[in-house]
Each structure stands twice: as structure tokens, then as C-alpha cells.
Amino acid sequence: MGFRLQLVARPGVTTLIRYVGSRLLQAIPLLIGVVTLIFVLLHLAPGDPTSLWFHPDIPPEVMERMRESMGLDLPLHQQYLHWLKSFFTGDFGYSYSHFRPVSAVIGDALPATLLLGGAALLVAFGVGSAVGAWQAVRRGSPTDSFLTVVTLFLYSMPGFWLGLMLILAASTWLAWLGLPVSGMTSVDHASLGPLGRMSDLAGHLVLPTVALGLGSAAGVARFMRGEMLEAIGQDYVRTARAKGLPEGVVIRRHALRNALLPMVSLLGLYLPILFGGAVVIEVVFSWPGMGRTMYDAVLARDYPLVMATSFLFGLLVIAGNLLADLLYAFVDPRVRYD
Amino acid sequence: MVASASDFGRMAGIPGFRLHLPPRVPPVSRAPARFVFITWMLLMLPGCDSGPPRGAERTPAQESAAAEELERESRRAYSEAVDAADSIAHTEVSESDRYGGTIVVAGRNDIVTLNPLVSTDMESAQHQAYVLFTTLVRSGPEFEPIPWLARDWDVDPEGDRITFRLRDDLYWHDGVPVTAADVAFTWERVVDPAVPFFNPAYFDAWEAVEVLDEYTVRFTVRPSSNLLYGWAVTAILPEHILGEVPPSELATHPFGTVEPVGSGPFRFVERIPGDRWVFEANPDFPEALGGRPYADRLVYRQIPEDAVSEAALRTGEVHMVVDADPSAANRLARDSSLVVTSYPSAEYSLIAWNTRRDPFSDPDVRRAMTLAIDREAIARVVRGAYGSVSMGPVGPWHWAFDPEWKPLPFDPDSAATLLEGAGWADTDSDGVREKDGIPLSFELYSTPRQSWRDIGEIVQAQLAGVGVEVQPRTREQASLIPLVTSPDRRFDAFMVGWSRDVPLDDRDLWACDRVDDPMHFTGWCLSELDAVLDSMQVVADRKTLERLTHRYEALVVDAQPFTFLYNVETVLARTASLHGVEADVRGTWASVSSWWLDPESRR
Predict the structure, then answer these.
(1) How far is B34 from B37, CA to CA, in rounded Å?
(2) Confidence of residue B551 (pLDDT cuts 50, 70, 90)
(3) Quick one: which of B385, B317, B357, B379 has its CA closest to B443?
(4) Which residues contact B164 (CB under 8 A, 6 or more apart)?
(5) Cα–chain center distance at B580
(6) Where are the alpha helices (DSSP H) in B47-101?
(7) Which one, of B400, B392, B570, lies nearest residue B502 by Cα?
(8) A311-325 pLDDT tens trace
(9) CB contact set of A248 (below 8 Å; sequence gap of 6+)
(10) What are the chain A neighbours of B476 within 8 Å (beta carbons)?
(11) Distances in Å between the alpha carbon of B384 and those of A182, B23, B155?
(12) pTM of the predicted model, to two decimals?
């Protein structure tokens, strides 16, 4: 699946559309596979939502009625087909742990996750590429070695631990910064002006973004350093230097641009990592997003909600991959789709 | 963050019946009245895992553990003294200066709905009874009913009819008066089988309702020992809003999640799911019920991580953390800007023995288990200074609790003697006792929470000391419940935490005619106890009820179908700028109208 590298360029608009179309078609069986797998795994786990509601005062026939109303009395394959059918007609079902329709629960949580994931992606790639490039240019220097240690350390650290350390720092030594350690908005958010709201949101975004993005940024930096070193060693860089171009221009225009190319494909790889990491980071920072919703839903055996959230996560990952491939074609004229 | 430790939820609430959810386990609807496992338990403290020091020699580790405990106790005493001084020191803030500001309270669990007909968790119950809604009566310190929405009531001479006269100055937040029709409507719905109300048993003795006029309502009742208790914990609902909703649709109606309309001291402002609920002071709340609350706004925030709520407390983002982590209490109390208090909770934990099977069919073996387990040490490990050995089925906070009662001691020697007497001896010197060639070995189930694992290890080590082999087993909540409730009961013993209720109706646990019911875990029953428990449900006289309760305690403790482990005290950590918080077993929010913030720390 994907593209073939060819040395003859010219991706026409029609081929591009055809490519995107075929990728989207391929995504459908993939998504069905994902939700089927989740469905089976979920039902393999012992217990169902009603076993958690077990109560001596509820007559058995009421329990049975509850199971019926949730469709839990049907054989598994029928439950599955039922779910699939309503799902494709746009009905995500009713969340029994939130007492609300699944679409409403997700409607509240999805923007929060997109915001956090997007910000973390910016941090991961912005900071990561900058640090990596910086290291490559100063290869072998004490700064390079130091940054290598730091990036390796951050890369190895689990996100939740990093998050807890950030919270510790923000509530003690960095308390003067006044960074909020939990939630997405302040309690007086609604009473602020548009600018105030934005800065309030930005303030709340800082710590979770750093916690989520820093590990990935370290990974990106490691990768970028390697790419950049490779680019610096290329003939065209030597040529550029030989032309007498200033070193800054050589690095920026010739080395950096070429080194950034493969980073685009990295983007597609990091999307799932970031969204997966959001599950944990959202719990740590009380961020009202999809990750936390999904986590809670799994523990509550809230089948419709787990299915819908995992479907959306799958969708985000597939969309991210497709986007990365398309971007790659955009930045690299050698790539062509057929 | 410790990975997904799923655990049984816990019922608490106003004592005993609502689900109090464990960290990060989302509230599930209709959780079991007692089927619910302890929430906050901690990591082990150093030096406590191998039981108590035996013999005269104390190792340095034991010394430091003792010193630590001393500090813990003194910190606790200090913090409580600060709390007591607080009320005196702030008398200079005049009554009128106490109004204003936004109070932010943090808890582990989200309030998923404020619809009293469907919610089961502690925080929801508290917000329904004390914040957003009003109840017909309230519970006094001894759980005696005191007038609230009902100005007064009388019972006719035959004792089968009770007439409530309601206040005429209470209004729904949309301006409609609260009337007798609302009371009748609420009762009709909570007892409706199509409505998943968590404990309709509170209204078992209530048979019919009749609205006499706008502010008078009469019920037909049967004798009951806790007749009015259900009304102290059930929020009255607006008939003019929900009256047209079919009962089967009440659970999914957006009333509880999107647009709740109450009649309490605070009005609903907004809710951000997974984050917070915001309420504002109701200026029209009747003076006689406390009037307008001091705080302009009240916010409940969900912060699932303990470390984060602690940080938020220190940065001033929140003013109070309910049910704080007891292992953090000592650390928090050291901060002069914080105050740590506690109150007895209805929650306790226990080991249930399956008396249907050997070896626990023998009461001597069960007694030996209790004697050989150092429950004091377990309470200390799990709850620090905020727990105590549990003695029996009735909570020490309950008015009927027998104050003369002493817990069974930690006495491994007597345990060994009992086991010898029961025929269990270590004949092959492998460290495990046998009888008829069968080793004294059993599986001890619990959920996989760290605290249960720790307790499992302690029990394992201590019982090994008397020649009993314990194999701790963990099962996720959703699979443990079927294991211990299914008819074949394929288990020896399991550990669980749940809450006691104020009405002492434990027939589901012990009654002989309910041995096959799911909640009859142990299979142990006694005809004398049946008679005692039956009488306890109908006797209204408290002196008699007290005598019966003491008999109930004695019978259960003698037979040890449970080994009662420890009682929980709920820890409240708050900033020193928040005053007026008076919490007891009735709950944290009971005093919410009189909470106030220092003028200089208001936002």
C-alpha cells in the first residue's frame, strides 16, 4: 500500500484523486477490521455492563429487561451485526456510563483531544527538528553530546512520569509561573473576554502538551540529527560550499530542506503514538478528551462508547497516515502515485 | 499513574448505600449496594509488611516505623487542633463579610448525572441531597429525622398513616413553587419498577400516597424501624418538568446531565463533562433552611490523579480535595497553608469465608483465621492514621453500635490451639497443617488493586506463621462478581470493601431463606439471627433496637463468617482560606451553605 518511488515526476490531479480514493477505499476494510477486533476482545473479557450494576434489590426480571434494552441478551454475532448496522447509519448508540448519547459524549471530548494532539505534534516536530538540526551542525561538540543524553533520556521516559514531574515542578519550584496543573479551562473561563479565554486555554495547554510532545520531540530530534548529518555529507552541500555560499545559507537552504523531507513520513508514524499517549496524559492532567473517555469506558464495559472511541482513534491514525503520504508527494516531486 | 487498577466501586454516600467509586473507575449505573470494593487504598508503608514486631528486640526499621507513626499521629492531632482553632480565630470576620467568591472542590470521580433516579455514586448523592436539590427531611447527628422541606409531620394513632406539612417558601430554580405534588411524584417514581432507582428498599414500608392540598401530603405506611431515612437521602424532583416523561425514559432523560433544575441552596450554571460542574448561590433559598449560601459559586472538579489534586491544592486551583489519599495526609498537614481533617466513613473492608465448603465450614477455623491476622497492622499499612480495626457488622459511628465491644485480639498462639483442636496438625513437618491428608490451604480472591495485593501478602505471611497456606488470587471486578455470586460459589474466601448503611437491613447477607441469593456469599446462617434481623426492621423504639443490634453484632462476631478488617476514615484536605466545613458520616457537603472563603483569597 502506498506510493512507489519513481524518478520520473508529474503527479497529475486525476492520478492524485484516484490515489486518494483508492486509499480511502482501502481504509474501509481496515477500519472494519479494527472495530471487529475491538468488539471481539471487549466481549471476550469477562463480565458485561450489567454485572457491574448487580444489586440485591433489583428483581431478576428488571435486570433481564436492562440486558434486553441494551441488546445483551442476543447471541454475539447478532449483537455485532446490530451494532455494525446502526453504526453505519450514523447511530453510535447510548453510553450507559455517561447517561448520554455516545455522539454527545464524543462531541464534547473530540475537540479537546484534537487540540492537545495538534499542539503536541507541533512541539514534537518544531522542537524536535530544531534540536536535531542544531546537534548535527555541531556534531561532536559538548552541546551535541549533552543534547544526545537529554534526548535519549526524554525518549526513554514514559509520558505519565514526565507529566507527574512537570506537575511537581509547576506546583513547587515553578509555582511563580502560575501554570495550571489540571483541566482545560479555569473555573472563571466563561466570564473572560475572547483574549482572556484564549490565554487561559493556552496556559492549561502548556503542561500536557509538553508532557505529551516532549518524548516524541526527543525521538524526532534523534531522527533529525541522523538525517541532517547525512544531508551535510552530500555532494550538493559540498558544491554549495564550494560555490562560496555562506555557511548559514548552505545549512538552511541545502542541508535542512533535504533533511526535512523524510520527516514528513515520520509525521504519519507519530500520529498514533501521540493519540495513544493522549490516553495516559489526559488521565494525568484531567484533560476532558477522548483518551480519558475511552479509558473510563473500557473499565465500565461501556461497549458502545469503547467501540466509537476506538473507531475514531483508528480513523485519526489512518487519516494521519494518508495525510503524511500526500504531504510527501507535495514536498518531494520525485514521488508519484499510481 | 498506576496502570488500570480496576476495582469494585464502593457504596457510600450518606452512609452506606451509594456507590463511591474507586479512582479512575467511571461511575457505573446501579452499582451494588454492598458489592463494592474499597476505593482508596495505598501503597504499603515501609516496615509494616511483615506484621507487628514480636519479642522485645526492635530493629532500626521498627524504630523508624514507630517514630513515623508517632509523627503521623501528632501531625493529625495538630491539624485537627488547627481546624478547631480555625472557627474561633475567624470569628472576627463578620457574618456579612463571609459572602462571595468561588469555592472549588476536587474529587476523583466525575459526577456523570445529577438525576437522583439513576445515579449511584457518592459525589452525585451529596450534590443531590445538599447542593442542587432539597430532601423532605434531613438526618440529625444520630440519624434522627429533622424537618426540612417538611415543616412537620404527624403519624395517626393507628400508626399506618403519616401526614407531612410542607414549607410554602421553597421554589424550583425556574420559579415554580415546590409542592406536595412534587413529593408524591418523587415517591411514585422511586418505587416504579421501570425506574432504576438504586435502593427502592428504603420505601418498602410506604404503600400509598394522597395529596391533601398544595402543601400537605399523606402516605400510608407499614411499621418500620427507619421509616423516614429514605426521605433524608432522596432528592425531591420537579413534577412540572419530569411529570410527562415516561418512567422508562427517566434514566436517559437529559434532565440529569444537561439541564438539571433543583430547589436547593445552589443553582445549576454549567457542566463540562469529564471536567466540572458549576453552581451559583440561590438568593431565594429560605432563611429557615440556611438562606443564601456564603459562596457566590461552587465548583466540583474531577481530578482523577491524586498527585495532581494535591498539586492543584498547593497552587490554589482547588480549595478542597475530598477523600484525599491518606498517605499524602501527613505531607499535606506539614504545609501551613493547608488543613487536613477527617471523619468516620461508613466504609469498611473484610474477608468473606465460604462456609459452604471445607475448611471454612468449621467456625473454629474461621475464628483462628481472625486471631492469626494482625488487623491493626493492616489498617496501619492501608490507611495510615485514618483507619481502625473493624469489630463487626455495625459501624462505630452508628448510634446502635455497642461501645463496650472489643475487637478479637491478634493472638497467633490461640489461633494455633484452635486449629489443633479442630484436627488440623502439621504431621509431615512441611510447615502446612493437614487433616485427613488434606493440607490447610486456600485461595484468597480480591480485585487487582495494589492495596488488596498488599493485604493479600500480609495475610499470606501471617497465616503462614500458624501453618496455613494462602494463595492470593486477583480477578478483575467484572469477573470476580460472577465468581462469588454464582450459585456454585467456587471460592474459599475473598476480600472486599463496602459501606454500611444506616438502616441495618443485612438480611441479604445472612438470612437462612436467602442462602441462594447472590449476596449470601458466606452461606452461614442462624435461625436466632434471622429472628433478630427481622425484628430489627420493624421495631421503632431505639432502646429495643439497640439491644437487638448488640445481639446481632455478638452473633456474627462469634461465628466469624467474615473477618472484619478495618474501618475507613475519609480524609479532607483543604486550604486554610476555606472555613466552615463541618463533615461527618452524613457526608462532606452537608454543611455546604456555610462554607466561606477568606476575603483576601477570593477570586
Answers:
(1) 8
(2) very high
(3) B357
(4) B136, B150, B152, B153, B180, B183, B216, B217, B218, B219
(5) 22
(6) 60-89
(7) B400
(8) 888 888 888 888 777
(9) none
(10) 45-47
(11) 27, 18, 47
(12) 0.78
**Strand boundaries in B32-191, DSSP class E:** 102-107, 137-139, 145-147, 150-155, 161-166
How high does pLDDT run on average in chain B? 83
Residue type, A226: G
The answer to whether the beta carbons of residues A287 and A184 sit under 8 Å apart is yes
- Estimate to the nearest angstrom the gap between the alpha carbon of A318 and the chain centroid: 11
pLDDT digits (tens, 9 = 90+) for B438-489: 999 999 999 888 889 999 999 999 999 999 999 999 887 767 887 888 888 8
* Helix axes A102-137 and A194-232, enclosed angle (nearest 10): 40
Burial string for B257-271 (b: 16+ CB within 10 Å, else e) reads: beebbbbbbbbbeeb
Render pLDDT for B104-152 as a digit per residue (tens, 0 to 9): 999 988 888 899 888 777 788 899 999 999 999 999 888 889 999 999 9
CB-based contact B572:B328 (threshold 8 Å): no
Inform me whether the pLDDT recorded for B37 exceeds 60. Answer: no
Q: Which residues of B touch A298 (CB under 8 A)?
A: 4
User: What is the distance of C-alpha A38 from the center of its chain?
Assistant: 19
- Which cell goes with A146? 549533552
Structure-block grid coordinates of residue A234: 552530500
Q: Sorting pLDDT into bands at 50, 70 and 90, what band is B355?
A: very high
CATH match of A3-51+105-337 with 1.10.3720.10: yes
Closest to B281 in 3D by CA, of B292, B270, B271, B269: B292
Among A residues 30-69, those touching chain B with beta carbons less than 8 Å apart? 45-49, 51-59, 62, 66
Which residues on adjacent β-strands are paired with residue B596?
B579
The one-letter code for the residue type at A98 is H
What is residue A120's three-state secondary structure?
A: helix
C-alpha cell at B402: 455497642
Among B112, B304, B603, select the one facing A97 at the smallest CB separation.
Answer: B112
CB contact under 8 A, A98 and B481: no
Q: What is the DSSP letter of B169?
A: S
- Indicate the residue type of B256: G
Helices A303-331 and A102-137: angle between axes, nearest 10 degrees: 40
**% residues pLDDT > 90 (chain A):** 2
Contact A188 B33 (CB under 8 A): no
What does the longest C-alpha to C-alpha distance in chain B come to?
Answer: 80
* Residue B397 CB coordination number (10 Å): 20
Q: Which three cell numbers stand for residue B466?
A: 500458624
Amino acid at B121: D
What's the pLDDT at A49?
67
Going by C-alpha positions, the residue among B268, B330, B256, B333 that lies closest to residue B299 is: B268
A&B contacts, CB < 8 Å? 188
Cis peptide upstream of residue B359 (ω within 30 degrees of 0): yes
Q: How far apart are CA B297 and CA A94, in angstroms?
A: 32
Rg value, chain B, Cα = 25
* Under 8 Å between Cβ of B568 and B386: yes
Residue with cell string 494532539 = A117
Q: Say how many Å lie between the first and final Cα of chain A, rounded.
A: 11
| CB-based contact, A167 to chain B, within 8 Å | yes
More confident residue, B557 or A64: B557
Q: Which residues of B touch A182 (CB under 8 A)?
A: 301, 303, 305, 308-309, 311-312, 317
Q: What is the ipTM of this complex?
A: 0.70
Amino acid, res. B442: F
Question: Which residue has better confidence, B189 or B17?
Answer: B189
Q: Where do the structural domains in chain A lie, given as residue ranges?
A: 3-51+105-337
Helix segments in B403-526, DSSP class H: 412-421, 450-464, 477-485, 507-510
